[in-house]
Amino acid sequence: MNKNTTRYIAVIYLSALVAFTGCAGKKENKEAEKGYCISKELKKDIKLVKAEMLPIEESITLTGEVESNSDKTVPFVSLVDGVVIDTYFSLGDYVKKGQTLASVKSTAVNEMQDDTQTLQAQLAVAKRKLSSVEAMYKDDIASQKDLQEARSEVAILQSNISKTQKNMQLYSAGGNTIQIKAPADGYVISKNISKGMPVTAGGDQLFTISNLEKVWVMANVYATNMRHVYVDQPVVVKTLAYPDDSFSGKINMISQVFNENERVLKAKIIMDNNGMKLRPGMSADVVLPINSQNKTALAIPVKALIFDNNQSYVVVYKKDCELEIRPVTEVASNSQYIYVEGNLKQGEQVIASNGLLIYENLKNQLNNSTK
Length: 371
Hints:
Layout: H1 3-20, H2 26-33, H3 40-43, E1 47-50, E2 52-55, E3 58-68, E4 73-77, E5 82-87, E6 94-95, E7 100-105, H4 108-138, H5 144-170, E8 177-181, E9 186-191, E10 198-199, E11 205-210, E12 214-221, E13 234-238, E14 247-254, E15 265-272, E16 283-290, E17 296-301, E18 306-308, E19 311-319, E20 322-333, E21 337-342, E22 349-353, H6 355-369
Helix pairs in contact: 1-2, 4-5
């Protein structure tokens, strides 16, 4: 520790009442007037939290990513060849089952209509044949086998006609145009179709619809963390998009094979997504509690700790014009709390937001007063 830092820490304790409180006496009052005070505007943006004794609970944080629930995800591939006339949806839209999403010009419509007419003609012939076989069966001219074959032929043709008609209804086929409709309710999470684009039967996925009421968070488990991770373990998921929100869940499955590219095991967490804040592709931190101890220590929020010149500090609040910088020693930590010992007492208030700004102002004021 350098000479200036040593002098700075010592002065904090020897001069606190002189620099930041309204003690009796003209000299003391004069010094207090020169001290740093939190402005009314800044006071609105700070958060005060009392230091409290809590059981020590440590945690680890795994990186992860939000994925759609594959059990509730429907990819769509065209069943016909054609050219896209227009699309009626965008990426991220919520669509209902049966909603028209695109129209495609295709010769398949004419082919389906021709197939239907051909099948209907074949069915008429098959029905006449069945009537003839039934009459011959009554006269013991035709066998039971002949009758079964005639009935089977009629049933097959009826089934094929029904299938063709359903396909035409599915696509709302008319003229040489078909309509592609949403196969399920959900959000469009991928879109690879646009006006004028050619499509082929069985080709690439044109879009994907997923129900996002439940999503998966896939956490990366490195070999060094394997001993801490197990099925049904409670976790807390945090995201950059919603830093003040925590999403609770548990580990539902852990893969048994390392991912070849990332060299990690994947832990799956099935999350309720009622607020629709978790979106596929979003990065996430997965916090797991570990090493719960039968000990207690003084706990403060993580954001209340300030690290400067290889030393941890907190800013203790007493009044708007009575603040103190105090060094503390870290004992343990998790994603929510830092457990400390040293120059802090239970019940004292520390600044847990904008503390660094106030710390720098106090530090500058103190340095100026010692010049």
